[in-house]
Amino acid sequence: MQTNPINLMLRRLIGFAGVMFVLSAMIFILARIVPGDPARISLGPSASQQQVDAMRQEMGLDAPLLQQYSEYVWRGVQGDFGKSLISGRHVSVEIVTLLPATLELVIVTVLLIIAVSIPLGVLTARHRNSWVDNAGRFFSIVGVTMPSFLFAILLQLLAANFLSDWPVIGRINYSLDLPDGPTGMLLIDSVIHGDWEVFVSAFKHILFPALALAMAGIGQITRITRSAMIEHQRRDHVLTLKSFGVPDRVIVFRYLLKLSSIAPLTIMGLEFASLIGNAFVVELVFSWGGFASYGLEAILQKDLNAVMAVVLVSGFFFVVANLLIDIVLMVIDPRLRFKEAD
Amino acid sequence: MNNLLDIQNLNVSFRNYGLESNVLKDVGLRIPEGGRVALIGETGSGKSVTSKTILGTLPENAIIESGSIRFDGEDVLSLSHGKREAMKGTAFSIIMQDPLSSFNPVFRIGRHLDDVLRFADRRLGENSNAADRKRRIERVLRQVQLSDTERVYSAYPSQLSGGMRQRVLIGLALLHQPRLLIADEPGTALDVTTQDEIMKLINRLVSENGLSLLMITHNLGVVRKMADDIYVMRHGEIVEHGSFRTLFKTPQQAYTRELIAAIPPLYGPDVEDQPPVDAEPIISLSDVSKSFDEKLLFGRGRSHLAVKDVTLSVGRGEIFGLAGESGSGKTTVARMIMGLIRATSGTVQVDGDTVGTKGQGPDFRRLIQIVYQNPGTSLNPKRTVGQTLSVPLRFAGLRGPDVEKRIHELLAHVELAPHYISKYPHELSGGQKQRVAIARALAADPKIIVLDEPTSALDVSVQKNVIDLLQRLRDGMGLTFLFISHDLSLMRNFCSRIAIMLRGELVETGEPRTVFAEPQHPYTRALIAAVPVMSDEEDRLKPKTSLDEQRRYLADTVA
Lengths: 342, 559
Prior knowledge:
Chain A is mainly alpha-helical. Helices cover 75% and strands 0% of the residues of chain A. Chain B is an alpha/beta fold and 559 residues long.
């Protein structure tokens, strides 16, 4: 008996909607039980009690908790997360301006991870226990164990000392005219507008932060790819193809690679989602000015509305990334598509 | 006659962590042009290493020390790498053993076939286009009796049955019309009726195409039908060689005699009849059904009836055999009896209590235990025998020195020396592992033991020892066995009563003597007829079955 893939997907979607709902409830309750009155934070210590009370009313904080929550969810669905307690601007506006920077950084990071770690994983698996393998394993251990800010600083030092005009901070050379593109991601916008100069500058700026951010992922995914390749190498189906003289490179790069990419891709999805929230260290070192550092600042300043929005947006990306990975895995692995009902 | 394959004084050793072990010792084997030769022996005897040496697929740590393999007069071992590769799949090819794991699960069947054909063509210096290759593949698929070639071609491995996949594996070997076909235990992973079909198919293809066959197997019943010349292998050496008739009538070596004696007969004077047991029932099922529902988003999807209206009772002290092919529902029945899953309708009673109404407490767990099919996977490799056995004992409330005392008792029951307590599973042989698994089941002092194909992963001689042990245990401890198997010749000798299942229904129940002598249901007849036996007399005593009956009941039969 076989299950319909669409049905499977729908079930997954509903599950993810549930995850978002639970997440929003948790962060809302947390935001209300942490000490500190949002109205007081917003107005500062010098405001009078009357001013604070008026603000509480304006923010709807005097309503019952359940009503507050349902209103919050209703507005949140429409993209309104309230005003920042510090800047007084709409949180959603602030996030929309900062998110593309982080998204761009994370996407380039993920592409880097894939481009480096999968070939490296295949290479180390093929030359198992040789010097190539040892070097590869050493490299991945270094990647996993060294903190990303250290890589970031080392890369900055490298740029400053040896690459004279390589940029060490920011997203772009601000003397250039920025394309007011549709996505806010400079690499994509510059391609859309055909602005080569902006593209090169944006690429130079993004390469080192992305590399610093990618190192941990590269180490992890290399190791997972390597062990998946080794695991599948001793299966009967490899022996089948070998017995009929199918060349080694075809067995490795076609048959084994596809089968062995399932595990690293699954990890990749989680990696992508967690990078969006965790990129702040690298963002701070490179003065990137993105969503992740915005979230950190919101936490430090106790900007509760902003914190809630940041958590929800990160959660949303987590859910979407996993959904996308699920679809990719279904395309790769027919066993997931035609899952037998047990 | 001209020898197509001539192996002389072949010595192969494996190097592991600096240690060298000699796995083939002076192996000599000849296959005449058009001949059918069988290589028999138990696990680890070197059969597969021999076939891998011929094919050139030995692992990297293997060293060919000396000897020669002549194929059509040419020494294969001294050929250049390119020439050697070119022979693969074209001069000789192999039928892989396990149809379930021999295809890459994320590629279509057609992709496997096409790649094998394409690269073989290229090595022979021929250029072939895709349409032409597809035509050739379809022709071969029809040859192996897969008529719906389009569906097979575009199917993923998991979408085909085991029998169909085995046929594709045969097709794979025939793509380039090799002269020598090496069959490495084909069909042993399949049901007995499917296996029978596969053997007939291989036999026909060999004779129609004038191929030579090297049959590697441990099933001596298969050998009788499939080979004219037999080599017996043990510990990497050929110990005996001769035609089937001489080898079986007058085996020279003690080992060969043991091997033959270990095979349970299906008919004839050597068949053992277990005395019927007349006792009150300890397990009784009445009108038990079990359906599995597909979970949909809303409402219920299609449901699949795995067990349908099964009524049976097992008397105290019986060895009750439950036979049937994979998917017939025998394991589902056993799991309901154990209280692992709940029956959809009907009642299951064990030792007077109805299973599934109240929570199954520790008392019930102690009442009924299970021994699984594969001791290699059912024992935790990281735990010693003692640790494995102490888990159920601790659940049974034993502490301190009592545990150790009981473990020694259990090891004595399964006839293992006390020092086995500190061994890890990888230090044990298959038979010893299964003994540990039996000891584990005995730990809770149960009244009933479910034996789920306890010997199918073992060699025949080991199988006999384990069965003898089980029988002694039953007699000594008054146990009741529920024996699940598809090995009918074993069940004929071991069970006091058997039941045959087909597609979730019980089609026949009775004492083995009557069931085998006068099978009532046509499915039982087809099933018994497919069991490979050792002699023509036994073949004659088998029930007669018509092609029509086979086609009606056996899923993988293609006329």
